[in-house]
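hey can u run this one w/ zinc ion bound, need the structure tokens asap thx
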Amino acid sequence: MREPLIYDRHIGDQKPETLFHKNACPFCNYHDTENIIKTKSDMIWTRNKYPTLLDSGQTVLIETADHEANMSNYPPEKQVEVFQFAWECWQEMKNSGKYRSVLVYKNQGPLSGGSIEHAHLQLVGLTKRDGYEYWTPETLQGMSVLEKGKLAVNLSKYPNVGLMEFNVLGADQTAETIREVALMTQNVIKYLMSQHHMYSYNLFFFDREDGLQVHIVPRFIVSPYLVGYDLAQLFTEDVLEEYRTAFLAYLKHPTPIDPEKKDGWF
Ligand SMILES: [Zn+2]
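ok here u go:
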């Protein structure tokens, strides 16, 4: 039996939302200085003002002061800076001894489950729960796309939601490997946007076996197979191979993202 996380509606009702209504962005000119844990350049790691989960310490890493910037358009050095700061904050939370487990993930885009448009990461400590209890490490396994030194990329054979989920796997946690993981994650995001018009995605971060792994999940309207039966869907082998080839071609000759295209279907 899968125990749900408990959501506090009284707090949820106060939460701002900027994705669907043009409310003022709480992350532009961030004012809640009493909640700030740490800053680095224009990044702010802060306690979530609206902790909707019971028995948790919810924090947010605001990646940039620029409302329009995100992982699809950061200069490479900015992408690396965000990953390295996130890793640092994550380890700090884990080492604090306050949490049984710490989850690190990202929502970006209208179908991602997030409520704030401004680029940010979520670092959530659960005081009583093992947040990885139902997570299956097999989601990180898949059809190999490339291997280069300490870095590997694959297309998941056991996706969480379905169809085309990428994994970017770092073999260790050195600054150099985190840098490679950051840059390759950015390549995957740009590929999904420019070639498949997927503008909504989640990133899930793992630090298994002392390495950093990122599971990239494009988001679209979820199928009833998943909702009703917990059945994800996957492309056939030949289609996965086609996308592997297309991604490798994209790495050699990146194509720009068309800002006019909205969240699409495959
Ligand atoms: Zn903003």
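Residues 9-126 form a domain with the HIT family, subunit A fold (CATH 3.30.428.10). anyway lmk if its weird
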